[in-house]
Design brief:
The protein has two helices and four strands, in the order ααββββ. The protein has 121 residues and is of the alpha+beta class. A hairpin with a 6-residue loop joins β3 and β4. The protein starts with a helix and ends with a strand.
Length: 121
Amino acid sequence: MQFLTKAGLALVLATGTLAGAVAPVSAQGFYLDDGRPPPPPGYGRPPPPPGYGRPPPPPPYGGRPRGCDPRLAEDIARDYGFRRARVVDITPRRVIVQGFSRRGPDEISFGNVRGCPVLRR
């Protein structure tokens, strides 16, 4: 009697384990056949537009510069109290403006991006 109880319990556990493992596996490729073929892969997603993922082309010669405008950097330096402000160096990362402040000759650095954020005074 004890053997039959243990065998029955083992059978119930095995059946429950098998049923629990079958449900996630069957959900992977679930398709009801209604007479039509399945849709091709990527059916619901439109193709990307041409040139997607590429950087924008550089501006044509004489076009608007991409970074900090030197005149804007000089104007911002004047707003910070610089007199006779002038741009002395432009690198890919920053624009350096020199001028005179209350303490004497001084310089200020701006980021070479749109809007000319102040980096260091």
